[in-house]
Amino acid sequence: MSFDIRTLLVAVALVTAFCAGARLLLWRMHPTIPGLGRWALAGTSTVIGFALVLSYGVLHWQSALSLAQMFIIIGLVLGWDGFRRFIGKPPLSSCVLVAVAVMSLLWIAVMHVHYLTEVKALSNAVLVAVISALIARDLLFSVQRHTPAIRVTGCIYAINAVFFSIRAVLGSGNPEFVDPLNPNGVAAIMLLWLLCSIIAITLGMVLMTAERLQADLDHQANHDPLTGALNRRSFGLLSEKEMARALHYQRPLSVLMIDLDQFKQVNDLLGHDFGDQVLCCFVAVANRVLRQDDVFCRFGGEEFVALLPDTTAAEALVVADRLRVSFATESKLLDCAVKQPCSAITISTGVAQLQQGEPFASLLRRADSALYRAKDNGRNCCEVAQ
Fold this sequence. Notes:
There is one protein chain. The protein is α+β, with helices and mostly antiparallel strands and 386 residues long. The chain folds into two domains: 5-220; 232-384, Reverse transcriptase/Diguanylate cyclase domain (Alpha-Beta Plaits). It is 68% helix and 8% strand. It contains twelve helices and five strands. A five-stranded mixed beta sheet has the order 2-3-1-4-5, with helices on both faces. It is elongated, with a radius of gyration of 30 Å.
């Protein structure tokens, strides 16, 4: 079956222009998200490329096709750089981007002097296949690959690499078969694939951005905005799950109720900004000392709670004391940083282990009572609930 190649070229050029506009709008709406600016530039470069391909179909100006391939490759590289920025990988260096541009210009100059359709099509297919494979690798093997949009977008680029690899193989030694205006070659199939893939990739970019924004909203809803620790809402949800697990499997469960000693005096003497630094410092120390399975929460003000699954009261007391010593050392360094007398800021901790059939509210009350006993005993110590 034959296709009207010029009509397909117009369709691809229009779709590319609309998709580039969508990427630009996405960047304008969320300029702080890494990578979106590169996606917008990639879309603009691709639009120029397909406009030149369209002009080649009308005017048959040989240099237009070489320029078009240059802009399409540059757009692909800019898109790759945008994906790397988005998923948190190091961006492509300026040297790499400049090298791609210089190589493309040299390629155009050589093709202008020795115009070889077969060599041009083969080299272009190989470049697109290689860059698409690199993008697919970065997306499919990133730490965020479990998100559906990233995974699907990576698969689209992997399919794109396969398509262009097949084109390179089929076009070797057959220049008419890869002629961009030949309706009986692979041109129509490639244009149909480009029509679909450009829409799918742009949709993938939009969905990736939506997933990032949703993840940010979820983080804000479940975490304390100052310290990044869990808030009471998320702590309550997670504690119910751990309670049910401990009761079902007859496993120990302990809780630490922690309070920063004389924190009001810290705020009054050194200011609230320094007090905020102390809170963030304590959370950083707790994240290092506690296990990944432990649930750590800012309960309110300078009070924190840590839920320790599969931990007895004796084991929790060891953890609490390690946390106390580590924070005393760290806070002393923080105190020196503001040129104040280096007296360490300390914590007091109450420890309680879940008893058979005990409600969670009762467990917290017992830990809180142990905390007050630690305060009465001179602070900077840990007490176990009776």
